[in-house]
Amino acid sequence: MLPSPRRSAGCRAAGRRSAGRADGSTGAFGINGATRRGRLARLTALTAALTLSAAGIAAAATGAPATVTSTAARSPAALGRTGAASHPAVVRTIVGAAAFGGGAAPIPAIAGAPVIRLQDPSPLSIAKCLQAIRLRCYSPAQYRVAYDLNPLYRAGITGKGRTIVIVDSFGSPTIGRDLAVFDKQWGFPDPTLNILTLGKIPPFNRGNAAMVGWAEETTLDVEYAHAIAPGANILLLETPVAETEGVTGFPGMMDAEQYVIDHNLGDVISQSFGATENTFPGFAQGSRLSLLNLRGAFEDAARHDVTVLAASGDSGATNDQADGATLYPYRAISWPSSDPLVTSVGGTQLLLAQDGNKIRPDQVWSDTYGAGGGGVSSIFGRPSFQSNVASVVGDGRGTPDISMSAAVTGGCWVYESFEPSGTGWEILGGTSEATPIFAGVVALADQLAGHRLGNINAALYALGGLSQIKQDTLQTGIVDVTTGRNSYGSKVPGYAAGPGYDLASGWGTIDAARFVLALARVAG
To answer: What is the pTM of this model?
Structure first.
């Protein structure tokens, strides 16, 4: 999900919680050669998308205010053009959950952040971002340093031979050329990008907020999965999901995933979307069938050793009500992140120098635009892999399991050319960012192991426990996150990070050079 400045804290509707639960399912290496939980996190309330002209950037550098004006959407013929001419700034309100429909409709996990759109072909440095919008902005090259990925690349571990499956509604009409521009900017190799459409995708409508939101999600997912695993194949799985009521939309997505699994088309599935458990039909009456009936693809993935990931959400310890415009006034989490057959990816905030090195340890993501989702399921009981953290999760399935970069105040550069306001670079965030990043990490581990790792939760929790031993002799690569709380924009208290597993960051984050080797060994 992409983080966004959400609606005001006062905008919350009361709701009733059901206590019903279902039992959760659980389901030697060498370098020789893979509620907008990833959603477009609430770009709802004030998401200011700033398109900075060359003059505006210069003004920001000198302390003078940039001129912000409203402009009409550019014509389709202009899409994809990367001219050097300056372009006036555009302030736009980024779509919130309400635009995707009520009920348990899948919503992208992108947080509604201020988005900078640059007509200039070069993204800004951290210093220029701070001067222009008072936010830090990061490149994939900086993430490679921050997560210690470069030693793996030098050893030939790039995800080669593995396939990451990105699942999104509608997709993006410009993803091929946008990825090419993204790769050229950072010097990355062009990947094998395949697009599989299951069902009739309606023509892209730049005036349709839901389609634009999903296109943003698609672009973020594809570009950052590729940035982390540059040698992996990318399969973009597009579905014709509309913003509808109830669970409509999810069956099509789950059927599409089932098709990919049954036809042996992918190794790691990245899902940057979700819906609050409480919004599934029958929840208030104690029925869980409308959600449980959707799990067939995950059960199939476990049988075929396909790893499934999902974003934990961008609303902290609570989540969207069915109207998509208000948050529950109590703690709530989303599915599929809450599913024991899925690895839940939460969010952290990084503080990096221009060279990508960390200025301070990562902390839990919680800023003006969102917070990493986390909490305890009201549907699934505690799975066996969480037995050793029962004191934290109680009787339910706790999320997240692990966390990666998601903060908007430290968002990532994405290149897009489908936006109504013009072509260029944007800064996005949310657990929609964290999830494809971690999907890339799993693809690296798949390559190293020489086979799919499947459901990695048991291995991840084993490594997490080992990481808490005074001297981590196995070099697990798990990096504990002990600072911060996932509170966001409401009176619902977030969970605090602390030593070991917690409901704010899971086991924390990773040092990839060590984690990939450890995961390949333990899960393999």
So the answer is: 0.83
